[in-house]
Amino acid sequence: MAKPMTADQVVRALRRWRVPFEEVPEWRTRNRNHRGTWGPVHGLMIHHTGDDADDAVDLRILTRGRPDLPGPLSQFGCDDEGTIWLVGNGRANHAGGGDPRVLRAVVEESYGGYPPRPHEHTGSAGATDGNDNFYGVETFYSGRRPATVQARHSLILLSAAICDHHGWTAKSVIGHKEWSDWKSDPGRVDMRSFRAAVAQRLQDGPPGADETADVYLLRAERRLEAAYDELVKAERNLRRAVDAGVDVRGIRTHTQDAAETAQKDAARLRARRRE
Ligand SMILES: [Zn+2]
How far is ligand 1, taken at its centre, from the CA of residue 42, in Å? Predict the structure, then answer.
């Protein structure tokens, strides 16, 4: 019987495992506990949002829900940069109905590579509700491409942090597709190899400061490169405006300088990582 983590326990576990996270305002009290049971908890379920929309769009939907499904739609979100967003704390609409045999296998952590193949889904006669018993994390991607390296890295750390708190093995982490025969998420993720990575992480323990610094440097480098691309586009549009007869000299110089600085900083970071 595992008691769900309190908001403070979530924060403490994520800090201990150096999970990069951000708090959505009011996440500590956002849940659907007024609509059903929350706990005992038995595992973590990995999802994808099914779109490659802006991360901000996914985050808004997770928080508020959709017309057919009230939010929160998970406790955690994971964006392309690998930031874990704390969306809610308590019951959330993510797992829906699934196969009780899978739940049993997760509780016992008794299965081999995969839990038994599910034969139930939301609304089917033998389904059981997973929103009672599973934390959920929505990965912000379509599932038609692999998740980003950073997202996968953070999902493994988040899984390890939650398993470590509860004393679970990696077998308490399943994909939505392993829960319901209607679901295919998370797309392009082999859950056996994902669990092997979580098991390895649990064995290795929380990452050190060096490993974490590397991750942040890589993210900064990608951001700077993206900024360069955007600034080049801005520059091009400004030039068109000039051609059309607008005087934008001051702005133009600034944009060009910023683009060059971003490019140089990205190159500097890349060189430092390779040292
Ligand atoms: Zn799902």
Answer: 17
Q: Are residues 185 and 237 in the same domain?
A: no
Q: What is the pLDDT of residues 14-50, one digit of tens each?
A: 999 999 999 999 999 999 999 999 999 999 999 999 9
The last residue of a domain, from among 204, 230, 247: 204
Cα separation, 267 vs 252, whole angstroms = 23
| CA 96 to ligand 1 centroid distance, Å | 9
Per the CB < 8 A criterion, the answer to whether 30 and 88 are in contact is yes
246 pLDDT tier (thresholds 50, 70, 90): confident
Please tell me the distance between residue 242's alpha carbon and the centre of ligand 1 in angstroms: 49
Per-chain residues with Cβ under 5 A from ion ligand 1? 47, 176, 185
Domain contains 144: yes
Q: How confident is the model at residue 204 (pLDDT cuts 50, 70, 90)?
A: very high
Q: Give the three-class secondary structure for 6.
A: coil
For residue 16, give the H/E element and its range.
helix 7-16
Domain that holds residue 246: 209-274
Are residue 257 and residue 168 in the same domain, yes or no?
no
Residues 104 and 164 in one domain: yes
How many domains in the chain?
Answer: 2
pLDDT at residue 108 tops 70:
yes
183 Cα to the center of ligand 1, angstroms:
7
204, 234, 250 - which closes a domain: 204
